[in-house]
Amino acid sequence: MTRRRAPLALAVTLALTACQPEPAPSTEAKGAEGESTEAAAAGPLLLPIDAKIGDFVAPPDQSEVAAKRTPWDNFTTADRLVVNRTDMSPTDSLESKWVQYKADPVGSMLKDGKVNFQLVNSMYRADILRFEDRKKIVGQMQEAVAAA
Predict the structure, then answer these.
(1) Cα–Cα distance, 5 to 106 (Å, whole number)
(2) What percent of the chain stands above pLDDT 90?
């Protein structure tokens, strides 16, 4: 700290320590007009509950069902083709991905190292992939992995 600022800092410090904090607010319960009342001191306001609303019923435990689910359970063929642009480099556009996957679906998936479910769905819709060809496609993937 420079010598010119030292007196200013000392004055500010003394002024702040001399200030008295405001007293804490009263914990006494206040009524609507600011006066203490017995009702306010008794506790929180209880509002009437509609009689048509029944008691809370906890949902059934579905832990066993949840343990059996897989990521494939969430995939539907009705998903639209939407590519997460944050997942791709700027030079790797949707159009180039589509051309690449359309030309060689198995090789493209292996090259990417992951299955892009939205592109696979679009290939099913475009009749590039068929459910009947699944054994052939899986066989091609296994051959490529074994050769690598």
Answers:
(1) 72
(2) 5
Sequence-distant (6+) residues with CB within 8 A of 35 are: none
How many other CB atoms are found less than 10 A from the CB of residue 110?
16
CA distance 30 to 39: 9
Residues whose CB is less than 8 angstroms from the CB of residue 141 and which lie 6 or more positions away in sequence, other chains included: 106, 109, 110
Q: What is the dihedral of CA 43, 47, 51, 57, to 10 degrees?
A: -60
Its sign, for the CA torsion 133, 139, 145, 148, is negative
Please give the span between the terminal C-alpha atoms of the chain, in angstroms, as a whole number.
66
pTM over 0.70? The answer is: no
CA dist 101 and 119 (Å) reads 8
